[in-house]
C-alpha cells in the first residue's frame, strides 16, 4: 500500500525519500557488519559457508562461475531500468556514476557481501530471520523495519518505470495511472506470502532475466555505440510511419528479433538455471558475457550484410531525412503519436 501510494504520486516523492533512505541503508549495513565481527571472529566469519548439502556445487571454480553469472544476470536487469531513469535526469553522468557506485560497488559488493556473511552464519537467506537473530529481538526488529523501509524506494522506482513502459500499449494508456500501478503490484502481494519459496527461486528468476536481456543488451550496445556512433533521430523514434528511419521491415527489426532468440537459446544451452546443468565452457567464462559477445558480433555482421545495403534502419546520414519535406513528416507523425 505504501509503494502504491508513493508511486501513484509520480517520481518527485521517491526522489526525496531516496536522499535519506540510501545513506541510512549504508549506516545500517555498517552496524550489521560490526555486530557480525563482534559475534564471530574475523577469520572465522570469512570461513563460514553453507552446509555442503545445500550448496549448488562443491567445485570451487564452478561455484565462482555460478556467483559471477548471478551477478551478470542481475546487472543485465538494470539495462532497461537505467534507460527508464534517464527520464528523470538532465545528463547521462547523473545516471551512470551513481548507478555504478551505488548499485555496483556499495550495493552488490558491500551490502550483499554483509548479507551473505550473515545468511551463511545463521543458516538462512531470509533477512527477516537472520537480522532478528543478529541484532536481537528489539534492536534486530528496528534494523529489519528500516531495511524494509529502504526497499520501498527501489520497489517504487521499479514499479514506476514498469507502469510507464506498459502504457506503450494503447488500452493500458487509457487506464488511470493509480490503477496501472495497482495492477503491477498485484503479483507482489501473492509473492509476499511465499517468501521462503521466493528466496529459494531467486537465483533462477534472476538468471532467466539474464536469458531475456542478454541478447537485447548486446544489440543495444552494438547498435547505439558502434553502428550509430551515439547518434539518433529523436523525432524518428516516435514516428509510426514507413517513411521513418527506424521502420525496418513493417516496423520490426527482424535481425534484432532473431539474434535475441538465438542468444537466449545459446544461453540456455551453456547454462540451464533450473537444473544448473552447464557446458564445460561455463566453468571458465560463465554464460552471460560470452553469449553477449557472440550476439553483439552476430548483430553487427547481419546488419552490415543485410539491413544497411537494403537501406533499412536509418544507419546512414541520408536516411535520417526520409524525404525532402522532412519537417512536415516529423510534425505530422509526432502529432499523431504524442
Number of helices: 16
How much of the residues is beta strand, in percent?
Answer: under 5%
Biggest sheet, open or closed, and with what strands and sense?
A: none
Backbone shape: globular
Share of helix among residues? over 70%
Radius of gyration, rounded?
23 Å
User: What is the first-to-last residue Cα distance?
Assistant: 32 Å
- Compressed to H and E, one letter per element, the order equals HHHHHHHHHHHHHHHH
Low-pLDDT ranges: 318-329, 334-338
Q: State the secondary-structure class.
A: mainly alpha
> Residue-averaged pLDDT, rounded?
83
What does this structure look like?
Helix content is 72%, strand content 0%. The C terminus is likely disordered. The protein has 338 residues and is mainly α. It is globular and about 65 Å long.
Note the topology.
Layout: H1 2-7, H2 11-39, H3 42-47, H4 60-76, H5 78-85, H6 93-122, H7 127-135, H8 137-166, H9 170-173, H10 177-191, H11 195-227, H12 234-237, H13 254-270, H14 282-285, H15 288-307, H16 326-337
Helix pairs in contact: 2-6, 2-8, 4-11, 6-7, 7-8, 8-10, 11-13, 11-15, 13-15
